[in-house]
């Protein structure tokens, strides 16, 4: 199980040391499990991204997400997201770069046919391993989302989780 979780964490991806006119691919794959008393919940998420670097320090792209939550094998919830992001990249050296992503989009939940919006800001550090291939590190960010559903009250969440999470990822940049 630890090896699976490590592989999932290593797949968390974005881009590093990209150059103007290049395309970058990345995304997240995640799994979490929680047990409280006799109740157990498993969460799996796949979130691909593709972007284009339109200037030396700026890129933009689209992102999506499919998330499945299974609680005790009884209640299954699916969540879908589609949106866009804007990225600012600041190379520190030929090997290291700092970048931050600002994303926003639309989301739906299968429970109560809930729909809403999300926004996020995530700073990252990137290490260029080989031409176009990088390791990426993040220690959290700022997230906001809201949903409205049939027969359910409006939900709004704001998370400030700097230092509460740690992500390691890989990314690939393709020059045009």
Compute the number of helices: 1
Name the structural class. Answer: mainly beta
Unreliable stretches covering 5 or more consecutive residues? 1-18
Order of helices and strands: HEEEEEEEEEE
Largest sheet: 8 strands, antiparallel, barrel
Helical residue percent band: under 10%
How large, in whole angstroms, is the Cα Rg? 17 Å
Q: What fraction of the residues are assigned to beta strands by DSSP?
A: over 45%
| pLDDT averaged residue by residue | 84
The N- and C-terminal alpha carbons lie at a distance of 39 Å
Let me know the number of strands.
Answer: 10
Morphology:
elongated
Strand order in the largest sheet: 1-2-3-4-5-6-7-10
Written account of the structure:
The chain is mainly beta and 176 residues long. The protein contains one helix and ten strands, in the order αββββββββββ. It has one helix spanning 2-10, and strands at residues 22-36, 39-55, 58-71, 75-91, 96-109, 114-130, 133-138, 142-149, 152-160, 167-175. The chain has an eight-stranded antiparallel beta barrel with strand order 1-2-3-4-5-6-7-10. Strand 5 and strand 6 form a beta hairpin. The model is unreliable at 1-18 (pLDDT under 50).
